[in-house]
TrEMBL record:
Organism the protein comes from: Brumimicrobium salinarum
Name the UniProt record assigns to this protein: 3-phosphoglycerate dehydrogenase
Keyword Cell division: no
Family membership noted in the UniProt record: Belongs to the D-isomer specific 2-hydroxyacid dehydrogenase family.
Domain D-isomer specific 2-hydroxyacid dehydrogenase NAD-binding: 107-296
Membrane spanning residue stretches: none
Regions annotated as coiled coil: none
Pfam families per UniProt: 2-Hacid_dh, 2-Hacid_dh_C
Amino acid sequence: MKILANDGVSPEGIEKLEAAGFTVVTEKVEQDQLIDTINEENYVGLLVRSATTVRKDLIDACPNLKFIGRGGVGMDNIDVAYAREKGLTVENTPAASSQSVAELAMGSLFALARSTYDSYREMPNKGKEEFKTLKKKYSKGVELKGKTLLIVGFGRIGQSLASYALGAGMKVLGVTRTAREVEIPISIEGVGEVKSTIKTTADLNEALGKADFITMNVPATPDGKAIIGKAEFDKMKDGVRIVNVARGGVIDEDDLLDALKSGKVAAAALDVYVNEPSPRTDLLEDASIAPTPHIGAATSEAQARIGTELADKIIATLK
């Protein structure tokens, strides 16, 4: 049986699948050629990340396809319900990348607090001649310790991020669909595991005004509407800093730029964008934005876990 990993899969995943008797192909097929290739090569499984879409037309046109796997969390690039109605198995890997995405978010919090992301851009060109000017420019940093972090979406990634933030001395608020208590384990080398209980809230509007830093860790809304827009920005503290490692569109990009211009938002870190893979130039060039190219899960450890988890699910389904 043949599997097309159209957006790639880790060597660990390939090894496990091949050991189970599958043939794995990782050569990229362009979207407009995907249906013909799947049928001509008789692929029974299709693995994607965010670059390849799997819509109704492909599902209808590929009767031999039995398994669709998404390496990562969000499955908005797949018509999941329709595929399952047609009898296909659709799986993702929600746990495999949680730590990596949380670490990127935590790194972004440090970068925003000290404007290091902008310093890295400016120093190579201006550091020699304008050292004192740049030193003054970046002299208004803040510490994370003692600050309040609002985590919008308190699933696996949000909880993993909370453990890092608590370890750095931050106060953590979590927003969930229904208020609940969540126990956060914090592993300390040489000490063991300590635990902190976070009481989440379902009232985003009430929580926004308490936050010094905000991270978005939620899936895209079913209707595609932003969760954070002008009305929400108006409720925030002046000078708040925001990180989005979730999905493009959960923050309204026009309203974010306005909030940055007015000073309501001091800085933002974006790993995801509305129009991927062609994000807006004004976002990428804004000096108050730390942009990364959707790399939340792009660590060797996360990719290894994603590959083996998908392999396990394919074997369980098709063997």
